[in-house]
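In this supplementary section we document a worked example of the pipeline. Step one takes a protein sequence of length 149 as its only input; no multiple sequence alignment statistics are reported here. Step two produces a three-dimensional model, which step three serialises into structure tokens for compact storage. The input and output of this example are shown verbatim.
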Amino acid sequence: MISDASPLISLSDTGHLDLLHTIYETVYIPEEVFDEVFRNRGRVKPSWIKVVSLTKPETLARFAQLLKDVDKGEAAAIALAAEMELPVYIDDEAAYLIAKAAGVTVVRTHDLLRTLCDSRKLRPAKAKQVTVDIQLSGSYMEIFEYGDS
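The serialised model returned by step three reads:
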């Protein structure tokens, strides 16, 4: 799993970052996302989140192309996900559509919560509370109702 900054910030701000680790043993983030989520905000990066540099010429070219349509963190996350052939965790609608168009599998917070509920690692009421917490923190998030598609 590769993550963009926004969902990490939302989960971190609401005390729910470990939910991601419940499903993914390792989450990779590009340096651009590390800067936005951890370095620039004084947060400590959990050991299960690994920082990866964009170094391959084709990845750097994809990154440059994506910068025309999305921000730096989103572009880096999508480019890295394409390179590593891993899903990307993005909640932003425009970035979601661009990643899908690029052939990258996208996971959103609702997908994460649904997977946790399906595997009985999270009760539906708690999943709904996560989305309420994210809303209260100032981020847009539709309320999660287990069983919604």
